[in-house]
Amino acid sequence: MNSNVIYNYSRLRFILFFLPLLLLVIIALLLYNQNALRVPEYIEIQKKAFFFINYHLGHYPKLQYNLTQFGDALIFLSFLSILILYAPKIWECLFSGLLISLLFSCSLKNIFAVPRPAVTFNNDSFYIIGKAVCGHNSLPSGHSITIFTVLTVLLFAFMPKKIKFKIPWISSILIIGLILAFTRVAVGAHYPIDVIVGSIIGYISGLLGIFISRKYKIWNWINNVKYYPVLIVLFLICVILLICRLLNENLLIYYYAFISLTISLYKIIQAYVKR
After folding, report:
1. Which of 204, 88, 95, 107 lies closest to 148, judged by CA?
2. How many Cβ atoms from other residues are within 10 Å of residue 243's Cβ?
3. Per-residue pLDDT tens digits of the chain, which is 275 residues long
4. What is the pTM of this model?
5. CB atoms closer than 10 angstroms to residue 230
6. What is the C-alpha end-to-end distance of the chain, expressed in Å?
7. What sign does the CA torsion over 104, 110, 111, 112 have?
8. Which residues are listed as membrane-spanning (predicted)?
9. How many helices and strands in the chain, by DSSP H and E?
10. Rounded to an integer, what distance in angstroms lies between the CA atom of residue 147 and that of residue 77?
11. How far apart are CA 269 and CA 54, in angstroms?
12. Is the Cβ–Cβ distance between 49 and 197 less than 8 Å?
């Protein structure tokens, strides 16, 4: 599996950055055309869309609140933890991509400083699922960045060779990504454009993670069995964090993540002992 992933990554070209950068430029031009580059106007032009999406998706609070947890790297990566044994190249790219996504998220949130919906609107006028997210860091959506960073790495890792399979695969990943990303609007944490911009930045972060890991061997130690104790310690820490999450919030998604991570931890220990 790992050799196929490496081969798929080796075929990628920098032209893949063209479309997401073009989309960001188009969004900026549309905002400029609507005189919405200032914060109040930015919020106002998507007010109706926010309430519409929030109202219709907010009818399923348990589903939305569970799905939105995929924007947390701890949860999403727990489901992919087993791949560290069978396709470590994916994890090399994930490490690089998520570090870049963190840099993008933190810096852009501080630059734009857009207030959250819970700060701007009457909290009784829309669905807030879970704890109300306040502050002035709405743009871009960090959860959306994380989701699309991970999905982009997976998208190109398992890209089918035949064109007739590529379109369904790409469409499926895109649809799943948007469903997960727009849970941020459903729970009342973000405006629609926050999510769209975050998704595009996540795609760029995932691509950068792939290209960086392809050129630089920063995370090659992941594939070396003698360093498995480091991974075992990291996974144990993540298991403890998941247990803490479960004690605070009894979410179904946490149970699944815990089971997945525990199985992966067992497999890694087993592989290390048998080396």
Report:
1. 204
2. 12
3. 888 999 999 999 999 999 999 999 999 999 999 999 999 999 999 999 999 999 999 999 999 999 999 999 999 999 999 999 999 999 999 999 999 999 999 999 999 999 999 999 999 999 999 999 999 999 999 999 999 999 999 999 999 988 889 999 999 999 999 999 999 999 999 999 999 999 999 999 999 999 999 999 899 889 888 899 999 999 999 999 999 999 999 999 999 999 999 999 999 999 988 87
4. 0.95
5. 12
6. 20
7. positive
8. 12-32, 67-86, 93-112, 141-160, 167-187, 193-213, 225-247, 253-273
9. 15, 0
10. 10
11. 44
12. no
Question: Which tokens is 72 given?
Answer: 């947390």
CA distance 231 to 261: 12
Token couple for 108: 């852009």
Alpha-carbon distances of 272 from 1, 81, 228, 239, rounded to whole Å? 20, 16, 6, 19
Q: Which residues contact 256 (CB under 8 A, 6 or more apart)?
A: 79
Residue ranges per domain, the chain? Answer: 2-222, 224-275
The two tokens of residue 179 are 């469903």
Tell me the Cα Rg of the chain. 19
Backbone angles phi, psi at 5, to 5 degrees: -65, -45
Amino acid found at 86: Y
